[in-house]
Amino acid sequence: MLNALRYELIRMWTIRSTWILLAAGAVLQFIVAYMAAGHSDQTQLWRFVASFNTTLPLVLLFPMAIVVGAFGHEYRYRTITTTILTLRSRPVVMASKAVISALLAAVTGILLVLVTLLAQVLRGGAPDDWARIGQVLAAVVVYGVLSFLVGLGLAALTRNATVAMIVMLAVPIVVEGLLSKVLKEWWMAPFFSAASLVDSFKWQSPLPLTALAALVVVGAGTALVRRDV
Q1: What pTM was computed for the model?
Q2: Above pLDDT 90, what percent of the chain?
Q3: Cα–Cα distance between 115 and 34 in angstroms, integer?
Q4: Which residue, among 34, 38, 39, 30, has the nearest Cα to 59 in the 3D structure?
Q5: What is the mean pLDDT of the chain?
Q6: How many other CB atoms are found less than 10 A from the CB of residue 27?
Q7: What is the DSSP string of 153-213?
Q8: Is 117 exposed, middle or buried, given 0-12, 13-18 or 19+ CB atoms closer than 10 A?
Q9: Cα(first)–Cα(last) distance of the chain, in Å?
Q10: 110, 28, 113, 92: which is closest to 65 by C-alpha?
Q11: Tens digits of residue pLDDT in 86-116
Q12: pLDDT at residue 51 above 90?
């Protein structure tokens, strides 16, 4: 397993697009945070939290493309066979990609919070409620890990990075938004529910997205084991 993790980590961090997509997400978050910091009539803490309220799913699309490509590009460039032969175990291939995806999501969450604090400092000052900042950081990381795993699983199931990205754009940002009046129960909108951790850290909020992520990843792993590559 350690060799598989090392294999995936080296491949991810040596691809130029990884850094470009991470930078794109950070720049977009900086712009959002800088604009939110311009609301001088609000407290610094409000401006900090507002930087993640509605745009988090959109900002995370850029780094999410990295993990979606971890499977999508394997099938596009026909390197999946080489990966399986190298690691010698299909479940290990799936598990290693999932672990590295979660690690990337955690790093991304930390990066986004740091960028947001920088934007606020440049516009007059950052909040000093470190407990609340830590809570937002935890919320961003949890949402990032779960949504990245869903994206990874969809790419593995569909064997197509484009389809996976379209779904990850459409469902959290478009579908759940348009159906917000229909999806009245909190568990009916898993992405929105998990993202609401930023506002209110309730332990049950990420459960629907956790269940969805587990279902998609397990399904993807099962499909990878059973089908021809």
Answers
A1: 0.93
A2: 62
A3: 10
A4: 30
A5: 90
A6: 13
A7: HHHHHHT-HHHHHHHHHIIIIIIHHHTTTT--SGGG-HHHHHHGGGT---TTTTHHHHHHH
A8: middle
A9: 21
A10: 28
A11: 888 899 999 999 999 999 999 999 999 999 9
A12: yes
Burial of 110 (0-12, 13-18, 19+ CB in 10 A): middle
Structure tokens at 117: 């604090």
Are 52 and 140 in contact by the 8 Å Cβ rule? The answer is yes
For 55-76, what is each residue's pLDDT tens digit?
Answer: 999 999 999 999 999 888 888 8
The residues near 29 (Cβ < 8 Å, ≥ 6 apart) are 51, 55, 59, 112, 115, 116
Mean pLDDT of 143-170: 95
Cα–Cα distance between 227 and 229 in angstroms, integer?
6
Output the CA–CA distances (angstroms, integers) from residue 109 to 26, 43, 80, 116, 173, in the order listed.
10, 23, 29, 11, 19
Residue type, 174: V
Distance CA 75, CA 59 (A): 26
Q: Is 200 exposed, middle or buried (0-12, 13-18, 19+ CB in 10 A)?
A: exposed
On the CB side of 14, CA atoms within 13 Å amount to: 6
CB 25 within 8 A of CB 108: yes
Tens of pLDDT, residue by residue over 189-223, are 899 889 989 988 787 889 999 999 999 999 999 99
